[in-house]
Every structure is written in structure tokens, then in C-alpha cells.
Design a protein that fits this description.
The structure holds two protein chains of two kinds. In chain A, about 65% of the residues lie in helices and about 0% in strands. Chain A has twelve helices and no strands. Chain A is globular. Chain B is of the alpha+beta class. Chain B has two domains: about 50 residues, no CATH class; about 325 residues, Cytochrome-c3 Hydrogenase, chain B (Orthogonal Bundle), CATH 1.10.645. Helices cover about 45% and strands about 15% of the residues of chain B. Chain B is built from 16 helices and eight strands. In chain B, the strands form three sheets. Chain B has a three-stranded antiparallel β-sheet, with no helix packed on it. In chain B, α4 runs antiparallel to α5 and α5 runs antiparallel to α6. The radius of gyration of chain B is 22 Å and the shape is globular. Classes of the chains: A mainly alpha, B alpha+beta. The interface between A and B is large, with 33 and 39 residues.
Chain lengths: ~325, ~400
């Protein structure tokens, strides 16, 4: 693609990435459903296609054909805009992830920062959805959302800073390259602690059980999306999955050595996807075995436990990096 | 006291930054356990007032009983508490037998205890599953516990199906005894089932009690003090979870309960976790009683009025009676007035869930919305029995 202008090249890569991503996301829902079913001694989707392989397509068609309801008392403009505002940041986070050496939309020098900043933008769409629905469950959920996302983005950021310090760069491709020798998750003590903190904070930032107080269907029915149906509902769900998978990719990149793995070099992207799916399965496993905790307990865990610990961890990492004589893996 | 409807419509703003929100939880809500409606007054996430509304499942059961003969009603009685159908049947049949002075053979009494205890296990399975789903969500770990529990409950329903041909509403009891004897091989299947369930209970306890989040959600939540428990008149696991050692099976044995060895679990804490602990012990004690019955089931007839179909076979004199049995949710009472005819003059249920539900407005205020569903789940109401 060297003879193409940079703009066209970026557009092509972005388009291809988006297409691949949508396919991946559709099948990740099937993966989660099958995984959860096996966990619960069920079979899971089985009717549509062999082993239920066409289920995501059937779901998509069904949601597409559903009636698009807007509550009479809702704020129409904001209500219709919210799923889009929610969707954009959830897909933008993929922009800086290099899926293979040199294969990414934009390998900017502040990759990690971009990811974190954009992913916390989703709260705007969330709050718009909760507020405009004119529903008390949705409103309560939006209030909880603001509380939780602010509380957990800080420890999430701190946990992500550990590999950044170890690699000495915010550029995602450089962090990946720095782990070709030793994955950061295997870095003594600090690596493991950072990884655990990252998983906990990302589960909370993704609003998944045990931190899914926004959706909390046994309390708030469906939370901020209680009034959404049809394609708008599908967009919100898709964005949530996009966020989860994006965070899994980032986790695999920051801690699990991205595309490093045995075998020839062209297997690298495969390894990266596999690791991201492993991260996703870990989060799914947690989701389907824990019960939800209360909003005040979630905030207490974040501010009194997770945030101080991650700050300490970042400080310890910085000291180690300095003592070791500068950055670089 | 809950405010009147017009007062609720006008919302006062005090501009100090706090505003009360009235939120309607139910009657159609994932955690309504049927059709419960709680009108919550919220200050942020905190509940400051609750108005419990019932009556969405009223089916005129007590009036119906006046129009059906003593022989016909038992199979309808099972529809009051449909999660523990055996218990409500037993309460009604015992009341009729008391009025008519009908003897029940020993084997029938033992069979009644057998099904009552199996029903307790099945009912507690459903309670544990739905309670965890209330706390854990249908898209989370709660659903996992729920599906495990339903899997075990199915095994007991299979046993009941083999015994009576029905899986939910049985019509097993009749005046003078029971309708069916144990079929061939049933006892062996029953032993296998209870062995399996006893083993699986350990898995549930591992899944829940070794999880710090479970302790966070249940300990110190929804505390019912001993005084409150006695004042409101709650029963069953709730009462025993509040430190009162009272179990009808021990205090006033019926249907030969005095022949069996079992413990009555008591926990003084009164919170959701205490109620959980009590029910987990009750699982095991019920299984223990079932084992004793399977080991020592006496021979003999299963009914003193075999094949009772027409009310002419049962003469119920004039009089009134109140009988109580210990159901999975507490005391199930049946008050019956006979006027000498084939149908009762008046009938009244004392639903265990109805009395237990009365404690909710006392314990919910001060908790958050998330705790409301946890507390409601720990009370384990069945709305067929509340509204009748």
C-alpha cells in the first residue's frame, strides 16, 4: 500500500478492520453464550445452523426487523442519538491497537493514553441514554454509571501504566516489542499484581458482573437501555461487546506479549487474537460465576482499595525501572 | 405510613440538592417473585419508605373452598402455594380429618412426611436459585446457581411424577390417607436422588460461601430482630434465622413427626446470611428425615378410606377446627368451619408467605435498592399463597 496516499491507506485499513471487527464481535457473542451454557450444564444455542453457528446472524436479523419504539415522553433527539454516541468511542478504541507488527490504523505515540481517554468517553452516550429515556430505572442506572466509570477509570489507568513504565513508551507497538523476551505478566510480582488489577478494573469499566450495576436487571430491569428496542438495542449491545473485546486486546497487548509466541512470525497475529480471546474468556468466566455487589461496595473497593494499591504499584514500578537503570524491556 | 396518592403526585423540591424519587417496583419486575409491587421512596440509592401492595394474584381460593366438597378441594388446595403443593394439601386434609375424626394409618402418615420433606428440599432449591438470581442477575453468576438448583429440583419433580403422575400440583393427599403407594423401584431412585443432592449442596456452599462478594451482600442486610420477628408473627426459616427456636414439627408434632430424629437449626443474627444458613441446614435435615422413612416405612394400608371419591364416604359433622403444618416457608394454617353438609361453611388459609411479607416494610427502609431484592429473595414469598 506504499503507493497509495496515507489518507486512502488509513481509510482502507480502517474499513477492513471494522468489517473484520463486526464479524468477530458477532461470533464473540456466540462464544460467550456457548461458554456460559457449558458452565451452567446447558447446551446453549444449537438450532440455527450446525451447533448454532448461524445464531448471531439470526439474532441480527431479528433485531433488525423489530419495531423501533420511542417512548412518548422521551427526549426524542437525545434518545435517538445516544446509541451512536455510545457506539463511536467503543469502536474508536481499536484505532491504536496494532494487530500485527505494522498492521493498525494509527500507531500514534500516545496509544495507551488515546485508548483510555476514548474508552471513558462512552459514559456520555450512557448518560444520554439513561437521561433521555424518561424512565426512573434508566435514570438511576445513569447515576450509577457516572459513579462507577469515574471510580474505575482511575485504577484502570494506573494498572495500564505499569507496562508503560516497564516498556518506557506509550506507543502500543513499542510496548508489544518490549515484551518479545519476557511477557510483562511474568515480570516478578509487579507483573502479576498489575495484571490482576487490570482485570478487576476492566471488568468494572466494562460493566460486567460482578460490577454490572448499570444493567442490574434484577433491580433496574435493564438499566439505561430499558426503553431501547430493535436496532438501537443491538447497537448498544454491540458497543458493549466492542468495548469488552477492545479491552481484552489491550490487556493481551500490555501484559501477555501481544503477537509473541512460538512458531513462525506470520502466526503472530493469530497468537494475539488467541490471547485476546483468552482474556475475554477469563472475564466471561468471572461474569458467570460471581454475584453482583452493591453500588456503595463497588465505590468503596475502588477508592479505598484498588486505587491506592495501583498507585503504590505504579510507584514501585517506577522505582524498579530507575534502579535497573532506565527504561526499555 | 405511606402517603396518599395525591400527595405522592406533588413532588416538593427543597433545593438542598436532595429530592425524593418514587419508584414503582413491580408488579411486573424481574425480582417481583410473581406479582409483588413495592412502591419505593428513594433518596438517591437509599430507600426511605416502602409501600407493599399485594393482591394481583387473588383467585378467590377461600370462596372456592365453600363451593367444593371436602373430597374435591384437596387437589385445588395445592394451587395456593404452588411451589410447595404437598404442604397446602396436607394442611387442608388434616383439617378435614380433624373435623370428621378420621384415623390415618401409620404408613400413610409416614408417606405424608416423606413427600412433605422432599417438597421442602424442592422448594428450598427454588428459593436458593431465585435468591441468587436476584442478587447475581440473570446474566451473571446468579443464573448459574439458579440453573444448578433447578437441575436438582427437577430430580425431585421426577420422583413426584413417578409417584403421582404430576410434576407441580399433585393431589396426592386424600381424606384418610394418601392416594398412591410407592411404585416399584421408587425407594432406590429416591435414595440415589437425595444422595446426589446432598453432595451437590456442598458445591453450592463452595460456590457461594467461598466468595467474598456473597458475604458482602448478605451479612448485616435485612436484619430482623427477635422482638420484631415475634411481633410481626413471621414463621419458618425467617423466624429461626432470628434466633427463635420454633418449629411446628418439633413443638406440635403432626403426622408422626415425633418418630423422626432431626435438628431444628437456629441462627441468632437475623440477617439474610442467617436465613441462608438456616435453610442450608434444613436441606440436610429434610434429607435425613427422608432417609429415616425409607429405612423404616411400616407395612399396612395407605388409607383408611381407600378410593374415596364421593363425599358420602366422608361424613363431616358440624364444628370448626384450625390445623397448622410447617411448610418450607413457615406455618401454613387452615381454618375450617363445617355445617354438617358436604361442603365447608367457611374456610380460611393462613399463608406463610403472607405473614412473612408483613415484615418487609419494617426492614427495608435504610437499605439501598440493590438490598431490596436481596431481602425480598431471602423472605422467599410465593404469591399464590399471599393472595390466594
Amino acid at each position: 500500500m506504499t503507493d497509495l496516499s496515507p489518507a486512502v491507506s488509513a481509510l482502507l485499513t480502517g474499513g477492513a478492520l471494522l468489517g473484520a471487527l463486526l464479524g468477530l464481535l458477532a461470533y464473540v457473542t456466540l462464544l460467550e453464550r456457548k461458554f456460559a451454557a457449558r458452565l451452567q450444564s446447558r447446551i446453549g444455542p444449537y438450532r440455527v445452523g450446525p451447533h448454532g453457528l448461524l445464531q448471531p446472524i439470526a439474532d441480527g436479523v431479528k433485531l433488525l426487523l423489530k419495531e423501533d419504539l420511542v417512548p412518548a415522553a422521551a427526549d426524542r433527539t437525545v434518545f435517538n442519538l445516544a446509541p451512536v454516541v455510545f457506539l463511536v468511542p467503543c469502536f474508536l478504541i481499536y484505532a491504536t491497537i496494532p494487530f500485527a507488527p505494522g498492521l493498525g490504523v494509527a500507531d500514534v505515540n500516545i496509544g495507551v493514553l488515546f485508548f483510555l481517554a476514548v474508552s471513558s468517553m462512552e459514559i456520555v452516550g450512557l448518560f444520554m441514554a439513561g437521561w433521555s429515556s424518561n424512565n426512573k430505572y434508566a435514570l438511576l442506572s445513569a447515576m450509577r454509571a457516572v459513579n462507577q466509570i469515574i471510580s474505575y477509570d482511575l485504577p484502570f489507568l494506573m494498572a495500564a501504566m505499569v507496562p508503560v513504565l516497564l516498556a518506557g513508551s506509550l506507543r502500543l507497538s513499542e510496548i508489544a516489542t518490549a515484551q518479545q523476551g519476557l511477557w510483562f505478566v511474568f515480570y516478578p510480582v509487579i507483573g502479576q499484581l498489575g495484571f490482576v488489577a487490570y482485570v478487576v478494573a476492566s471488568v468494572a469499566a466494562e460493566n460486567r458482573v460482578p460490577f454490572d450495576i448499570l444493567e442490574a436487571e434484577s433491580e433496574l430491569v435493564a438499566g439505561f437501555r430499558v426503553e431501547y428496542s430493535g436496532m438501537k438495542f443491538a447497537m448498544i449491545t454491540l458497543s458493549e461487546y466492542a468495548h469488552v473485546i477492545g479491552t481484552s486486546f489491550l490487556g493481551a497487548l500490555l501484559f501477555l506479549g501481544a503477537w509473541s509466541g512460538p512458531g513462525p512470525e506470520w502466526l503472530g497475529p493469530g497468537w494475539f487474537r488467541l490471547k485476546a480471546l483468552m482474556m475475554f474468556s477469563l472475564i466471561t468466566w468471572v461474569r458467570w460465576s460471581f454475584i453482583r455487589i452493591r453500588v456503595d461496595q463497588i465505590l468503596r473497593i475502588s477508592w479505598k482499595l484498588l486505587l491506592p494499591l495501583t498507585v503504590l504499584l505504579v510507584m514501585a514500578t517506577a522505582i524498579i525501572v530507575v534502579l535497573r537503570g532506565g527504561t526499555g524491556g | 405510613m405511606p402517603p396518599e396518592t395525591p400527595a405522592r403526585a406533588v413532588r416538593t423540591l427543597d433545593y438542598t440538592g436532595s429530592e425524593r424519587l418514587t419508584m414503582n417496583m413491580g408488579p411486573q419486575h424481574p425480582s417481583a417473585h410473581g406479582v409483588f409491587r413495592a412502591i419505593l421512596e428513594l433518596e438517591g440509592e437509599q430507600v426511605v419508605g416502602v409501600d407493599a401492595v399485594i393482591g394481583y394474584l387473588h383467585r378467590c381460593h377461600e370462596k372456592l373452598a365453600e363451593h367444593l366438597t371436602y373430597v374435591q378441594y384437596p387437589s385445588i388446595a395445592s394451587k395456593t402455594d404452588y411451589v410447595a403443593a404437598m404442604t397446602s394439601e396436607l394442611a387442608y386434609v388434616m383439617a378435614t380429618e380433624g373435623l370428621a375424626k378420621v384415623e390415618v394409618p401409620k404408613r400413610a402418615q409416614y408417606l405424608r412426611v416423606l413427600v412433605a420433606e422432599l417438597q421442602r428440599v424442592a422448594s428450598h432449591c427454588l428459593w436458593l436459585g431465585t435468591w441468587c438470581m436476584d442478587m447475581g442477575g440473570a446474566l451473571g453468576g446468579g443464573a448459574t446457581v439458579f440453573l444448578y438448583c433447578i437441575r436438582e429440583r427437577e430430580l425431585i419433580l421426577d420422583l413426584f411424577e413417578a409417584l403421582t403422575g404430576a410434576r407441580l400440583l399433585y393431589g396426592f393427599h386424600q381424606i384418610g390417607g394418601v392416594r398412591y403407594d410407592l411404585p416399584e423401584g421408587w425407594a432406590a431412585q429416591c435414595r440415589q436422588t437425595i444422595d446426589l443432592i446432598e453432595q451437590r449442596l456442598l458445591e453450592y456452599e463452595g460456590l457461594l460461601e467461598e466468595n467474598a462478594f456473597f458475604h458482602l451482600r448478605t451479612k448485616g442486610v435485612g436484619v430482623i430482630t427477635r422482638e420484631l420477628a415475634e411481633d410481626v408473627g413471621i414463621g419458618g426459616p425467617l423466624l429461626r434465622g432470628s434466633g427463635v427456636a420454633y418449629d411446628l414439627r418439633r413443638a406440635h408434632p403432626y403426622s408422626s413427626y415425633e418418630d423422626f430424629q432431626f435438628d431444628v437449626p437456629v441462627e441468632p443474627a437475623g440477617d439474610c446470611f442467617a436465613r441462608y444458613q438456616v435453610r442450608m441446614v434444613e436441606f440436610r435435615q429434610a434429607i435425613r428425615i427422608v432417609r429415616q422413612i425409607l429405612d423404616g416405612l411400616p407395612e399396612g394400608p395407605i388409607s383408611s378410606r381407600p378410593g374415596v371419591k364421593s363425599v358420602a364416604q366422608v361424613r363431616v359433622p358440624k364444628g370448626e377446627i384450625f390445623t397448622r403444618v410447617e411448610g418450607p416457608r413457615g406455618e401454613v394454617g387452615c381454618y375450617l368451619i363445617g355445617d354438617g353438609g358436604p361442603k365447608p361453611y367457611r374456610m380460611k388459609w393462613r399463608g406463610a408467605s403472607f405473614s412473612n411479607l408483613a415484615v418487609l416494610p419494617h426492614i427495608i427502609p435504610g437499605h439501598s435498592v440493590a438490598d431490596v431484592v436481596a431481602i425480598m429473595g431471602s423472605v422467599d414469598p410465593v404469591f399464590g399463597e399471599v393472595d390466594r
